[in-house]
Amino acid sequence: MALAGTTGSELSRREWGYAFALVTSLFFTWGFAYGLLDVLNAHFQTVFGISKLQSTMLQLAYFGAYFVYAPIAGLFMRKYGYKKGIHMGLTYYSIGAIFFWPSAKYAKYGGFVGSTFVIGCGLSCLEVAANSYISVLGSPKYAAARLNFSQGFQGVASFAGPMIASRWFFTGKNATSLYTVQWVYVAVAGLGLVLNILFYFCPLPEITEDALSAEMEGAGVQTDQEPFWKQYHCIFGWIAQTTYTGAQVGVAAMAVNFFVDQNVGINESEAGQLFSYCQITFTVGRFVGVVLLNFIDPALMLSVYGVACSAFALGTAYAPGRGGVGCLFGLFFFESICYPVIFTLATKNLGRYTKKGSGLVVMGVGGGAWYPPAQGSIADTNTAHSYIVPFTGYVAMTVYAVGMVIDQARKGGFRFRTVEESYITKEKHTDLESESDGDRKSPIPLEEKKGDEEYVEAVEAIS
């Protein structure tokens, strides 16, 4: 049975603001969890005496969960709605976090890996729900700007989490203990529980695929009448998201090693601090992107940022000394808008396939599971040159962005400014109808009509 629902444009200002704020809170939740991963990597190397390669099992579990569970989450929400999908995600999130307690109590690294996988499954649900919900919560014209704003809070949590953990939880005698890990993740589980309760008691307007499809049809857009496998902008968007996310994760994973290996007098402590500054640069870039995306077409802006990412990745790989350090900072800035813009481009005008498509695109986060090992294999020889691996991901993303620009230009003319596509489609649809009506209803000149009548009378007389 189809869920009764609405569209974002039909909500009152109060309903819209409430739904936007509540769903945006989820971005901070998974940003904090992701930010703790790198801290745990280093901590577990010390406590368990494991290698760097073994410690990356946490990343494999985390990002592998997205690859496995995101499509399932999309299908679940297609049947039961966004709100139940959020409840499912927060439940997995809390369960995975609470199982850090016995893993720490009995010092089982495998338990941490398994718990991280469960957390990843929960976060994949939340990403499918939150990214998709924010994208359709209002005019498609500002979808990319809305999603960049919400994801900006994920960026805040991504650098706040490691800074807090490194300063308070994993220093002094706690540097060789799992004791504080228990309490950190009990707090994380509690956060998930509180959010679950808030979502349960607070009304969240359900934006359904049927309502979105009807809205598209009213605007003259019927792209969702084609089968899902023909939604090429979504299929290729998944590929772009996979390569981009893999590149982003690889860039961050090797950043500390890169700073140290540039031979400009940066030690590990300073490198860690510089990495936190890179994350701040990324977050600032995301909020700058919110402003720009209100005026510049998202596909065009992604194309420009994609070229910049590719150039700065090459600069990081081959520029010596402080030049390479500067290029890495530039790379973090231009990465900022890429994930949310790819998501909005890939899921726009999907109508009845919105949740299914969202699950597919979020599945692209799984790219973070296999790009870092490929980069790491080169980094063992030369850390800087390993950034050629992320370069390939940015090139693939740029090809997708340029392809979207060309597709838009072919259908409605080149655009520099962001526009309301439904209005353009309506105008084209109206113009076509007017031309058709004009062909059918254009009045016959009086002289022609009179001549025709005389011709008929003459023929009848001859007969």
UniProtKB/TrEMBL annotation:
<feature type="transmembrane region" description="Helical">
    <location>
        <begin position="302"/>
        <end position="319"/>
    </location>
</feature>
<feature type="transmembrane region" description="Helical">
    <location>
        <begin position="151"/>
        <end position="170"/>
    </location>
</feature>
<keyword id="KW-1003">Cell membrane</keyword>
<feature type="compositionally biased region" description="Basic and acidic residues">
    <location>
        <begin position="427"/>
        <end position="453"/>
    </location>
</feature>
<keyword id="KW-0472">Membrane</keyword>
<feature type="transmembrane region" description="Helical">
    <location>
        <begin position="85"/>
        <end position="103"/>
    </location>
</feature>
<dbReference type="GO" id="GO:0005886">
    <property type="term" value="C:plasma membrane"/>
</dbReference>
<keyword id="KW-0812">Transmembrane</keyword>
<feature type="transmembrane region" description="Helical">
    <location>
        <begin position="182"/>
        <end position="202"/>
    </location>
</feature>
<feature type="transmembrane region" description="Helical">
    <location>
        <begin position="16"/>
        <end position="37"/>
    </location>
</feature>
<dbReference type="InterPro" id="IPR011701">
    <property type="entry name" value="MFS"/>
</dbReference>
<feature type="transmembrane region" description="Helical">
    <location>
        <begin position="387"/>
        <end position="406"/>
    </location>
</feature>
<feature type="region of interest" description="Disordered">
    <location>
        <begin position="427"/>
        <end position="463"/>
    </location>
</feature>
<feature type="transmembrane region" description="Helical">
    <location>
        <begin position="274"/>
        <end position="296"/>
    </location>
</feature>
<dbReference type="GO" id="GO:0022857">
    <property type="term" value="F:transmembrane transporter activity"/>
</dbReference>
<keyword id="KW-1133">Transmembrane helix</keyword>
<dbReference type="InterPro" id="IPR036259">
    <property type="entry name" value="MFS_trans_sf"/>
</dbReference>
<feature type="transmembrane region" description="Helical">
    <location>
        <begin position="57"/>
        <end position="76"/>
    </location>
</feature>
<feature type="transmembrane region" description="Helical">
    <location>
        <begin position="326"/>
        <end position="346"/>
    </location>
</feature>
<feature type="transmembrane region" description="Helical">
    <location>
        <begin position="109"/>
        <end position="130"/>
    </location>
</feature>
<dbReference type="Pfam" id="PF07690">
    <property type="entry name" value="MFS_1"/>
</dbReference>
<protein>
    <recommendedName>
        <fullName>Major facilitator superfamily (MFS) profile domain-containing protein</fullName>
    </recommendedName>
</protein>
<dbReference type="InterPro" id="IPR050375">
    <property type="entry name" value="MFS_TsgA-like"/>
</dbReference>
